[in-house]
Design brief:
3 helices, globular, about 30% helix, about 120 residues, 7-stranded mixed beta sheet, alpha+beta
Length: about 120
């Protein structure tokens, strides 16, 4: 597995899936980036499939303030079909959530995606 493919898919998922508020555009991006049997794993649940991923993203973004975006704070590293990166999210000039993601690539697409969240920030 080319490391550039793994790292590129992880970064594309954050930019094109986890920041996309339009459901049709998000589903199209998911189809390009995620394996048909893709699973995402959060600390308290796991879900499978493109529709469930899109619904999860929609719910996450609906709970966020206007202007909220996720961004890679990198570097994104990968080898042997696995990639990891750090990220943060918030409206411009503010970070309200941060963490790290790891993905495993199968057949050139993300097959599993793990989310790790930093402890809540004290204001």
């Amino acid at each position: 597995m080319n490391d550039v493919i793994a790292t590129g898919l992880l970064e594309a998922s954050i930019e094109r899936v986890w920041n996309e508020r339009d459901g049709d555009k998000r589903l199209a991006a998911i189809a390009e980036i995620y394996h048909p049997e893709a699973r995402i794993h959060e600390p308290e649940r796991s879900i499978t499939g493109h529709g469930a991923i899109s619904d999860t993203v929609a719910a996450v973004l609906a709970d966020m303030p206007p202007g909220f975006r996720f961004e890679v704070t990198g570097p994104t590293l990968g080898h042997h079909g696995v990639a990891v990166t750090r990220w943060q999210g918030g409206p411009p000039g503010q970070v309200i959530v941060s963490g790290a993601d790891a993905v495993r690539i199968v057949d050139g697409k993300i097959h599993e995606h793990w989310f790790f969240f930093d402890p809540a920030r004290e204001e």
